[in-house]
Write a structure and sequence with these properties.
Blueprint lengths: L3 H12 L2 H4 L2 H14 L5 H8 L13 H18 L1 H8 L6 H24 L30 H22 L16
């Protein structure tokens, strides 16, 4: 596993497509949500405190199945409770329940998968093995490409991703409040 800066950098890497799909404000919201959820699989560190001996690091929360199910639940919750309030608060007037579900689901999925992928690339020698394909493939899988806590790797990667996101945000242009998210609306 990489340290927190590495996980944030991978979250930014996986969220890059947002700048090519939406305009600035919606892309920034997507990137922010994916960035936060890039730390989601490490919830097992907190759960292990509440359920000692039953949950271990790199266990079920570090699987593609867990990330997909958590993304599904997050998408359903966002669609049910956040569609109207977020539209009103941000003045987007772009999200119906289906598009809010897709937005939240995709952000959670990319953020969570970025974490699992980063852990697959690092340090099985000093951490518990990761089984990302469980329950379909019940075996540890990793590449051991990156050393956990390598300050140079994690810092440089995070700085590069922040610079790349800033450049893409600049390239998108000014915030366009007229941009429409739903397919049934068009851009001006």
């Amino acid at each position: 596993m990489v340290d927190i800066t590495g996980h944030l950098a991978f979250g930014l890497l996986f969220a890059l497509p947002a700048w090519f799909i939406w305009r600035k404000r919606i892309s920034a919201a997507f990137v922010g949500l994916a960035l936060i959820t890039s730390l989601l699989p490490d919830i097992d560190l907190w759960l292990a405190r509440w359920f000692p001996g039953q949950i271990h690091h790199h266990g079920v929360t570090h699987t593609i199945v867990f990330v997909a199910l958590a993304s599904l639940v997050a998408g359903l919750i966002a669609a049910a409770f956040l569609t109207g309030p977020l539209d009103n608060w941000l003045g987007w007037d772009r999200f119906d329940k289906g598009s809010m579900f897709a937005f939240a689901f995709a952000a959670f999925l990319l953020g969570g998968l970025s974490h699992v992928f980063a852990d697959m690339l690092s340090a099985p020698d000093i951490s518990t093995p990761i089984e990302p394909f469980w329950p379909f493939f019940d075996k540890a899988w990793s590449v051991d490409l990156i050393y956990y806590n390598d300050p140079l790797w994690n810092s440089v990667f995070l700085i590069a991703m922040v610079i790349l996101h800033a450049a893409l945000a600049y390239a998108v242009g000014p915030m366009d409040h007229r941009y429409r998210f739903r397919a049934d609306r068009t851009t001006d």
